[in-house]
Amino acid sequence: MGGKGRGQGRGRGLAAGLVTGQRHGGAPGVAGRIAAELDAAVAFWERHSHDPEHGGFFSCLSRDGSVYDDTKFVWLQGRQIWVYSRLYRTVPLFRRPQLLEAARKGGEGSGGGILGQFRPFSIPKFPIFPQWARPKFLPPPIPPKFTQNPPKFARNRRVFPQTAAGEFLESHVRPEPGSSRAAFALRRDGRPERLQRSFYSEAFCALGLDELGRAAGEERYRVGPLPKLPGTPPQITLGPGGTPPQITRDPSPKNNLGPLPKLPWGRLRPLPKLPGTPPQITRDRLRPLPKLPGTPPQKITWDPSPNYPGAGAWARRWAGAVWGWARGAPMELGRPRFSGTPPQQALAQALMVLKVGLQLWGDPRRDPQNQPDPEAEAMAEWGARHVLMHLQRGDSVVLENVSPEGEELPGSLGRLMNPGHALEAAWLLLEFSGRRGDADLGARAVAALVEGPLKWGWDPQHGGLFYFLDADGHCPTQLEWALKLWWPHAEAMVALLAAQRFQPRPSLVSQFLRLAQYTFDKFRDPEHGEWFGYLNRDGSVALSIKGGPYKGCFHVARALLMCEEMLDDILEGEKPPQ
Fold it and tell me: Is 58 within 8 Å of 73 (Cβ atoms)?
């Protein structure tokens, strides 16, 4: 995104006046409300999501925070580690050892960390935000509640888990030793449960561990050589023509019988199969033994201690694997290509590569001592270039799937649009363009990825953003296309303020206020805190849960944190008269 003072052109005073509350009582109240919402959202997850027995975080939380499923989803583990670490690193209120240890150790059994330490804030009565004057979402800290099978741990004392959240990932996330994959879901104790044919688990592990390393000042989470896992056989380098290395004997006089004779490796042939010879069992023909009744489940673990060689390389290794998979190695993900499968690239994958590249590259505003990283910059550039391929028809549409060459695909697959992904692409490209100093790219991102999606993605009848749309106006085939989800609205808030900081306009401010009013009125839960994730088209709550396999401690907290930072930048550019 553009730096401070960028875009000091026409319209700055009017836009700043709207944002700073000169009309309708705007941004000091909006900024304060965003700060309070951020505090409440993080407090909700701190109270309810930490597992004091095994480490890591629960994400399947009911409306009141009770755990309805103790499955742990890996990409949500990495996301929550990222949120805690970024808050600790950038917000003075959250710069406390408890929060950083929560990223490492999964939290405290009896809460008591962030709660009670909110920023001083008096809730004003806004004519445009009447429901915000109800601070009912700050209940006292309580231990995690379970709807069934409560864990056995002391409830009258603070219980510090023994397994760090970051180390929980390092210990359990791989489905088997030596694998370059990360599981999608784990049992509560860390046993791998299932794998997805995508790289989002690996990507968010890389994001979370890199941010944890920056917050903790520990390089082992971020950089280093590729790890060699226990049990990995030593690599044997073959000689010219594929010959094995020369074997020599003990050179001592009593054993010095001279060099071994050189065998004609190229002329050797396999022995003939005689009658009665049992079939040879090779590695690719081995199958796992059947599990008999009463057989205890096998737990695959390895040493995650700080002294484990190469443990700190996992974030980097996963990031490199994500980039490689995105560039065309689907077989490694278990995704076969058939003769009729059209070559395609998904916008979500290009966004993920851009996001990981920006994370590893580091933000000069937050990391003034950050060293140049050409590999991370190249990764971000690759992601940005492929994101732009999805802008089609003169930048009037943003398609979810295009060909590897950036051409439209036939059928409903090629016409699919997701306003949330387009708006997420907007602020990511604004971030990239700001670091590169590319004002033209930033202007294109605002026009095609902010103003466009908010025009064709907004529901004119009920308000809010559709989940999916068809570029030609047909009914999308996705059953949930008309639902209103939390994360597109969170991304839209970030995108609008990023655009306003880059290129101030009154229209952007108006759209932000409209979007903020809808989002806080519809998604926010005034009774228990945090946001509902899934609304019907008319804005009523479709699912009352606060978390699940896809919603955790990430989009809400990240969006509110970024909005708070950008509002500070905007207000600093032109403060209201005293």
Answer: no
What domains sit in the chain, N to C, each tagged with a CATH number?
Answer: 12-227+305-335+352-573 (1.50.10.10)
For the record, the structure tokens of 431 come out as 């971030």
**Those residues with Cβ within 8 angstroms of residue 172's Cβ, 6 or more apart along the chain or in another chain:** 183, 186, 190, 191, 192, 301
Rg of the chain, C-alpha, whole Å: 27
One-letter amino acid at 182 equals A
- Enter the tokens of residue 349: 């994958």
Q: What is the pLDDT of residues 71-95, one digit of tens each?
A: 999 999 999 999 999 999 999 989 8
CA–CA distance, 400 with 416 (Å, rounded to integer): 6
List Cα–Cα distances, 434 to 183, 364, 438, 560, in angstroms: 35, 11, 6, 21
Give the residue among 449, 426, 472 at the shortest CA–CA distance from 566.
426
H helix and E strand count, the chain: 16, 14
For 259, the token pair is 């060099």
| Residue 128 three-state SS | coil
Asked if residue 426 lies in contact with residue 445, where contact means CB atoms within 8 angstroms, the answer is yes
Bridge partners of 299, per DSSP, are: none
Q: Return the axis-axis angle of helices 314-326 and 347-361, rounded to nearest 10°.
A: 150
Query: Per-residue pLDDT for 368 more than 80?
Result: no
Instruction: Give the count of beta carbons closer than 10 Å to the beta carbon of residue 65.
Output: 21
The strand pair at 541-543 and 67-69 is best described as unpaired
Element (H, E) at 485: strand 484-485
Q: Contact 279/301 with Cβ under 8 angstroms? A: no
Beta-sheet pairing, 397-398 with 391-392: antiparallel
Quick check: 412 pLDDT over 70? yes
3-state secondary structure of 415: helix
Q: Distance between CA 62 and CA 51 in Å, rounded?
A: 16
Mean of all residue pLDDT scores within the chain = 75
How far apart CA 124 and CA 119 sit, in angstroms, is 15
